[in-house]
Each structure stands twice: as C-alpha cells, then as structure tokens.
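TA notes. Do not distribute before section.
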Amino acid sequence: MTAALAQRAPVRTPLWYGLDEVPADLGPSVLTIGVFDGLHRGHRRLVDHARDVADERGLPLVLVTFDPHPARVLGTGKDTATLSSLEHRAELAGAAGADAVCVLRFTRDLAGLSPEEFARHVLAGVLDARAVVVGVNFTFGARAAGDVTTLQQLGAGLGFTTHAVPLLQAVDAPCSSSYTRRCLRAGDLDAATRALGRPHRVDGRRSGNLVTLDPDTAVPPPGRYHADVNGRATVVRVIDGVGVADGAGAAAPVLRIDAGPAGDGPVAVTFHGRAEGER
C-alpha cells in the first residue's frame, strides 16, 4: 500500500468512510488527526509537519477527520456550520500532502471510548500508526480526558510517537474554523478568504438555475455575490432557509444562479465577493 499511495494521482485522494473501508494492506502509517473543517492555513501547517514526518520514515500519511462535527453530537452549542464537504476536504488534504483521508463517524459510542481504547483500537490497531501528529490543544477520548501528554504516554506502549504542533498565530487573520464561520455569517468574505488561504467554496446539487446545499452548510448572508460555478464566473444569490432538506426539519440554503446555461447535477460554487449594489 505504501508504494501505491506514494504514486497516487495528484487529483483524487482516497477517501475511506469509516474504519471498515481502510485497506487491509495499508501497513504502518503516519496519522494527523482533527476535524479539519475548511482545511484552513492552520490545518495545512499541521499537515505540512505530518508530511515531513511521513517522508522521513517512508510511510504514507493518513489524515483522520470526523463526521459529523463532534460538537454537534455532543450538543455543546458551538457553531458547527460546514466549511467543506468531506469530498472537498479530501481534495484539499491531498493537495496539502495527505496520501489518504479516513472519516471516523462520530457517534455517542465513539465519543464514549476511553483515551486508551481509542488509541489502541483506532490509532495503533486499524490504522497501524507509527507516528501521530496533532495540534498542541488536541484532546480525545470520553469527556476529552486525553491530551497530548496522554497520547505520548499511550503511544510509547503502543508503538507510535506523538508530535505536537504549535497553533499558527497569523498576523493578518486568525486561523480557526470558528473565526471563518463568524466571518462568513457577517458577510466578510475577504476576512474568510484570508483565514482559509483561498476563497470559500460550497458543494451542492443544481437543478436548473437553483443549487441546493446541505442544511448545515456555511454560507454568507442572503444577497448577490460574484462567484464561480464549476469554474465559470457568474453571479449567485444566496436565499436563506428555503425548503426542508432533512428529517429534523432543517431549512437548507439555496443559491440562485443569475446567468449562464441551466443544468443539473453536482456543482462547486466559489464565492469571491458581494455583487455591485449589495451591502
């Protein structure tokens, strides 16, 4: 698996939905763990460090993420609007240097694992970790009982090293998913772009000139915006809370494409700024 991953196509990164999809022949690996929503500049610093460790050891780098957002399952009240779909997250992770992405389904059962159970079964077990790269504020296990020190202690007995990366302190913009969500909700696309290191993109499904997004997608306030739709420049209108998209009754954001040929199917919409006359 190591050789196969090293020669991966640059565009498509393997995306494993759950531990059951991890190839049996993966072999030893280097892991970096986090939600990684949006893959902002701070996240990419973590991936850069993990890539260096993987290269030093000649091992594949697997980015481990969670879905849904842990805070959503635990009911912390934190804003968890999605900055990047799992498919886009995998695309960004591959561009940043990851060889594969493993999505852990975050459930109450997973949340209930002790730090030792998580490290033994998931990290050292299925993913065969030889090194784990995390941020200095990383916590894991039931009630967030484990931290970097815990991971180091467990890793010493389970056969992996732990590498803690300091958080990125950016001068021009904070590098956090929470900050990026606040910028988007306020309509400050320039600040969101600086935090992400690129313009904000959403993935949805187009029918005619309408694009329906998942209910929890992070979008700017209602209004008209300059955007690219599958790479084609146009203007889109954000229509907030149109329709009911899931069993819980959550209203899904809808985008209306102002110009261009109609079409159907999956689309990627990248926001660049408010259209003329919009505030």
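Switch to the second chain here.
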Amino acid sequence: MDSALQKRLAESFRCAFAGLAHAARTQPNLRIHVALAVLVVGLAVLLRVPAAQTAVLFLAIAGVIGAELMNTAVEALVDLVNDGPHPQAGIVKDVAAASVLVMVVAAVLCGLWILGPPLAGGVAGLLR
C-alpha cells in the first residue's frame, strides 16, 4: 500500500474513532445501548449460544449502535442548519429517532428469540 493511501486510511479511522468518542461522551442512549450489548454478549457466552446465533446477536447490536450514531449525526446536522424550532426540523429528527426504535425492536426480538429458550431452560432447571 502506498504512503498516501495509508495516510488517508489512517485519517479515515481517526475521524471515525473521534466521531464514536464524541457520541459516547454526549449521547446517553448510546451508552445504554453499549451496556445492554455487553449484557447480551455476556449472556450469549454464559449460555453457550451457537456461533451462528451469536453472529445474529452481533449484527443486531451493530444495527442498533449504527442507527444511534446516524441519529446523532442527523440531529447535529439539523441543529447546524436550523436557527431555531422548525416543524420540518422536528420531523427529520423524529424520523431519525424512529429508525433507532425500529432497530431496537428488531434487536430485542432477535435477543428474545435466541436467548429466550436457553434462559427459560436455565430458570426451569433452577426451580426443580
């Protein structure tokens, strides 16, 4: 790889990590998503969830976090170009937030589908 390409690639990663760090500092919902992701991954390991199902969980987690990051970017851009409250700005922000909600619902359903049976089996085993 040539030097100029390496520099551009390094700068791209630097910017991406700076954006991730900014979102982690400023977005409480992102921190909640990350905490829940750690819990889900921990449960998947503890319950010995098969690799393919664990991959689905990782994709669901990435979808939620990606949607939250896009929502943060949309909100920042709307705030930048809009001087004050505007009905269209509110719609843009609401729709961006709705995309996060859709991903969260899908991720929760995936989590319940994958983790529900082994969790129920573990609880049933404890109650015997």
